[in-house]
Specification:
It is a single chain. This protein has 17 helices and ten strands. It is an alpha/beta fold. It has three domains: about 200 residues, P-loop containing nucleotide triphosphate hydrolases (Rossmann fold), CATH 3.40.50; about 60 residues, Helicase, Ruva Protein, domain 3 (Orthogonal Bundle); about 70 residues, Winged helix-like DNA-binding domain superfamily/Winged helix DNA-binding domain (Arc Repressor Mutant, subunit A). The strands form three sheets. Strands 2-4-6-1-7 form a five-stranded parallel β-sheet, sandwiched between helices. Strands 8-10-9 form a three-stranded antiparallel β-sheet. The protein has a two-stranded parallel sheet with strand order 3-5. The structure holds adenosine-5'-diphosphate. The site of adenosine-5'-diphosphate has 22 residues, from helix 2 and helix 12.
């Protein structure tokens, strides 16, 4: 009953077909390098990191900061939003390791609250004090964590999930944060994950250009989609675990529709299993609808960090106008008739490639671009 669990995985046994990537990430950690885990959403980045960290758990102290949680209402968020996620991660450590008591005192001194308020994350008390908590404070705490990790013969592993969102935190100095770790925390390893690959690389390059990392660089681990055989094996194994017999035709259809993305395959498996067990009627269409809802949320988030949000939105709307698919020239024509600013085909080609990379648009045969499932109706 594990493959179809729709939360990130923690155990290798539940994490299908990624042994190679786990070993890759372990190797990076072993050599004290930094890692960037890259791939589209729901491809298994969080799972990869969690499974790997779990396998070396006796040797490390993990500090997990999930930037995917910062929300999608606004484009920019204040430093406090980051501080909150940072303290959540830190308090996990304080709760888990008795030797981390020093850290709760360090934070409570800085914020002028009780250590207990830090351990319990008493936001009523902490919140107001967080206003003048800045990157320097974060760095100081990380140095403290690095030290206690060293004292206890462990490595500190900081995992910044959905790293591209760091662009949306106003007032956080990511360059200073990374360089402080590089300079002072010899015992700390960084892992970032990014679902908008280009944006993630752009942030890392920018930091690197301002002040090179020299010796320690980011090694990239790419997660690719499953091919059809892997998707099939994943589904068959999953349904076997659930003790459910399923029509081969349905499996083949799901393989085509969910296009090798494990998160969608797991959602499909989970939903299908549930409906069979409780004798509900279920159509694959409904699962696609659910998926489309989530994708349109992803798209909104993508627009918030991209540099040409208007253009991207116009492209999607134009393809949708064309009935969900069209050639480059046709899309350009629709855009030029609907929108003020003229678009050149070469520029459109670049923007479309990005949308294809992030799986918001599919590149089909013979130069046709299409919207996956029923994304257009949702975005419209
Ligand atoms: P990401 O961080 O890339 O968005 P997650 O790790 O959150 O992806 O995974 C998304 C969903 O897909 C989760 O439900 C997870 O359990 C499932 N999943 C991803 N990869 C695999 C895999 N290789 N085997 C089993 N389940 C997977």
């Amino acid at each position: 009953k594990i493959l179809f669990d729709t939360r990130p995985k923690n155990e290798r046994a539940d994490f299908f077909n990624r042994d190679k990537e786990i070993e890759e990430l372990k190797d990076i950690l072993k050599h004290n390098d930094f890692a960037a885990v890259l791939g589209i959403r729901r491809i298994g980045k969080t799972s990869l990191v969690m499974v790997t960290l779990n396998e070396v758990k006796d040797e490390i102290i993990p500090l997990v900061i999930n930037l995917g949680k910062i929300g999608s209402e606004k484009k920019l968020y204040p430093m406090e939003t980051f501080s909150k996620l940072f303290l959540e991660g830190t308090s996990e450590i304080i709760k888990k390791y008795t030797f981390a008591g020093k850290i709760s005192r360090l934070i409570s001194n800085r914020l002028g609250v009780d250590p207990k308020d830090i351990i319990d994350l008493n936001w009523a008390k902490i919140k107001i004090k967080l206003r003048d908590f800045n990157t320097q404070d974060v760095n100081e705490i990380v140095r403290g964590l690095d030290e206690i990790a060293d004292d206890n013969k462990k490595k500190l592993v900081i995992f910044l999930d959905e790293f591209q969102n760091i662009k949306r935190i106003k007032g956080f100095d990511i360059g200073s944060f990374l360089h402080d770790i590089y300079e002072w925390c010899k015992n700390t390893v960084l892992i970032v994950s990014g679902s908008f690959v280009g944006v993630t690389e752009e942030v890392l390059n920018q930091v690197e250009a301002e002040k090179p990392f020299f010796g320690r660089k980011f090694f990239k681990v790419y997660l690719e989609r499953f091919n059809e055989d892997q998707s099939r094996e994943f589904l068959i194994k999953g349904f076997e675990e659930e003790g459910i017999k399923i029509d081969e035709k349905i499996i083949e259809k799901a393989i085509k529709l969910f296009d090798g993305i494990p998160g969608w395959l797991a959602l499909f498996g989970r939903t299908y299993t549930y409906s069979v067990k409780h004798s509900h009627n279920i159509e694959i269409k409904d699962i696609i609808k659910e998926a489309a809802k989530q994708v349109s949320k992803d798209f909104t988030n993508f627009l918030k960090i991209s540099s040409s949000p208007t253009r991207y939105a116009e492209i999607i709307l134009s393809i949708s106008r064309l009935g969900g698919k069209g050639r480059l020239k046709e899309i350009a024509d629709v855009m030029n008739s609907l929108y003020k600013e003229e678009i050149r085909e070469s520029r459109l080609h670049d923007l479309l490639s990005t949308l294809v990379n992030y799986s918001f648009v599919k590149a089909e045969k013979r130069g046709i671009y299409s919207l996956p499932s029923d994304l257009p109706t949702r975005i419209g």
